Amino acid sequence: MAEIKIENVTKRFGDFTAVDNVSLTVQEQEFVVLLGPSGCGKTTLLRAIAGLGMADQGRILIGGRDVTYLPPRERKLSMVFQSYAIFPHMKVYDNIAFGLKMNKVDKKESDRRVREAAELLHIENMLDRFPSKMSGGQRQRVAVARAIAMQAEVLLMDEPLSNLDALLRLEMRAELKRLLADIGATTIYVTHDQIEALSMGDRIAVMKNGIIQQCDHPTTVYDFPANQFVGSFIGNPPMNFLTGRVQKGPSQLTVQIGDFPLAPGAAMTGVLSPLDGKDVLLGIRAENMEALSTPNADALPVKVLVVEPLGSQNLLTIKIGNDTVKVSTHPTFPVRANDTIWLRFPANKIRWLDRETGRVL
């Protein structure tokens, strides 16, 4: 068993709390991504799991064994760092074999593991090269191969693709996802890149200020963010947030977006009804608004400020009251800057949030 249990872990640096009472369970062979902006505590949490920075409070269990105060070498895990951390004076073969040599693995078994890992990473023809004769992507493959060769049940990865260019990152994302599925290791992967998180993880744990804001399947985190921070951090462009005022009329409840009365739908009427006369936030993705080129009674007229053709879509920037909004349309949708279009908000695509706390209602 290689289940990882993080129980109420806190890590402080002086008066600063980097990880604040975090609990998380990673199932055996699961791939969980820790996602968040710089300084949110994701790397600090990963280092606590690895034993590179002891937790001040809480427990860490790997395979049911309490490893909270064990040194890294006794935790039976492998780690891939943001920097390649490979030895420039050693050939690729020796770099991959280094951990096996330190663990006094039999030479025949070590050779088998090195060559097997190199083949998985498609660097089997580079074993006699020095790192200086390799590209950045090839060096990163060496670092991953070294971790895989250890055959640890737990693999920790700290932004391993961040030093690669965009095209190589795209290629390596797919390769890593395939590879980790093949070897079946329990993996925790740290990144600030939401595209990596959405495309690779079985679950995403979104962090802010040392606290996990939401942990769920990527599509759930994208479609049903737990709060305004998650919605604004996940997605490109991020989720739009509009301010509206709840008004209970004689026949139906509406949310006033400026002068436009928006019907929230039957499912949310009961939730919003107690907030009569108060402001709420309407969250909606750019691709979930329906843009119309002609007036419609249930659509809001808006002026287009900027049109960005992106090939597969056009990204429109518009202003609704004091809120700047991004709208995604098909590239054939007829629109230019300064045109007026009409926006329809499908009720099942709207996420309603408390304006004060930013939490989903």
| Mass-distribution shape | elongated
Largest sheet: 6 strands, mixed
CATH homology group of the largest domain:
P-loop containing nucleotide triphosphate hydrolases
Mean pLDDT: 92
Count of the separate structural domains: 2
- CATH fold-level topology of the largest domain: Rossmann fold
Q: What distance separates the N and C termini? A: 38 Å
Number of helices: 9
Strand order, sheet with most strands? 6-7-8-3-9-10
Number of strands: 20
Question: What would CATH call the class of the largest domain?
Answer: Alpha Beta
The helix content, as a percent range, equals 25-40%
Structural classification = alpha+beta
Order of H and E elements? EEEHEEEHHHEHEHEEHHEEEHEEEEEEE
Low-confidence stretches: none
Q: Mind telling me which CATH architecture of the largest domain this is?
A: 3-Layer(aba) Sandwich
What do these coordinates show?
By secondary structure, the chain is α+β, with helices and mostly antiparallel strands. The chain folds into 2 domains: 230 residues, 3-Layer(aba) Sandwich (Rossmann fold); 115 residues, Beta Barrel (OB fold (Dihydrolipoamide Acetyltransferase, E2P)). The protein has 9 helices and 20 strands. The strands form 4 sheets. It has a 6-stranded mixed beta sheet with strand order 6-7-8-3-9-10, sandwiched between helices. It has a 5-stranded antiparallel beta sheet with strand order 13-12-11-14-20. The radius of gyration is 25 Å and the shape is elongated. The model has no long low-confidence stretch (mean pLDDT 92).
Summarize the structure.
By secondary structure, the chain is α+β, with helices and mostly antiparallel strands. The chain has helices at 42-50, 92-102, 107-120, 136-149, 166-183, 194-200, 218-223, 228-233, 266-272; strands spanning 4-13, 16-26, 31-35, 57-62, 65-66, 77-80, 154-158, 186-191, 203-208, 211-216, 240-248, 253-257, 260-262, 279-284, 290-292, 300-309, 314-320, 323-329, 340-344, 351-354. The strands form 4 sheets. The protein has a 6-stranded mixed β-sheet with strand order 6-7-8-3-9-10, with helices on both faces. Strands 13-12-11-14-20 form a 5-stranded antiparallel β-sheet.
